[in-house]
Specification:
This protein is α+β, with helices and mostly antiparallel strands. The protein contains 5 helices and 10 strands; from the N terminus they run ββββαββββαβαβαα.
């Protein structure tokens, strides 16, 4: 079996065994940066009870905001698939871009020129020093998957983690159907 290495654009998927880690339990993270010194990504399947207008009142926009990770949770980040509309974006991979001109983005959102399936907003991010993530991978806290979605920004949060486990198969099929809270079993 070929094990994938973490790379920009790939998915970092929480192993079922990290049940007691409230920051990352049942999460899928899109890796947006992978260098010799650090790794950065955003949790794709942890929506918050906030919409964008709750955080940026001058934008009347009801797009859901997600918890990107435990680092810098006071900062707003975004990934998108419309680089022609949002200049200064950094390509991650597979047509997904990170950041860009926020002032222009505000105008586009106010004018309803961007769909919710084109962009995702995050409070905070997930980050590791290079060796830190390597150690977590070696202790089976995560596994790596290709981003094989046509539009990862349109995925269903409720089943995203389960779907990736079912796709991996084997022992993961059992975990995919386990309750989120084992006390409810």
């Amino acid at each position: 079996m070929v094990l994938l290495k973490p790379e920009k654009g790939r998915l970092l998927i929480a192993e079922p065994t990290i049940l007691n880690d409230n920051s990352f339990k049942r999460t899928i993270i899109l890796l947006t940066e992978h260098t010799l010194k650090s790794v950065v990504g955003f949790i794709l399947n942890r929506p918050l009870n906030h919409v964008l207008s709750d955080l940026v009142p001058d934008i009347d926009c009801n797009f859901t905001v997600y918890q990107g990770g435990p680092v810098e949770q006071d900062n707003l980040y975004f990934i998108h698939k419309v680089p022609k509309l949002i200049p200064n974006s950094i390509e991650v991979a597979n047509g997904i871009y990170w950041g860009g001109n926020f002032d222009l983005l505000k105008e586009l959102l106010i004018k309803n020129k961007i769909k919710s399936t084109d962009i995702r907003f995050f409070l905070g991010y997930s980050g590791w020093e290079k060796k830190q993530l390597d150690n977590e991978l070696n202790t089976d806290s995560w596994f790596i998957s290709e981003n094989d979605y046509d539009n990862i920004l349109a995925t269903k949060n409720e089943t995203f983690w389960k779907d990736k486990l079912l796709q991996k198969g084997g022992k993961y099929k059992i975990w995919a159907n386990a309750p989120a809270d084992f006390q409810m079993n």
